[in-house]
Task: structure prediction
Amino acid sequence: MAREPRRLLRAGDSELEPDPERDHQRARAYGKYLRAVGYLRALPDVVAWVTGSDTS
Result:
């Protein structure tokens, strides 16, 4: 039952004529998401470098 809303969203996203403007917005949002995830993954290393401590 938890998967039903996701399936409905995917079905609602499929259109006969794709909207390039909306696809562009999604691509930009996904790029921002990937960049943020990269920053968060690097954060412990940056903190260790700034404080001079070794995390390994």
User: Anything to note?
Assistant: The chain has a mean pLDDT of 76. The two ends are 43 Å apart (CA to CA). The first helix runs from residue 4 to 13. Helices lie at 4-13, 20-51.
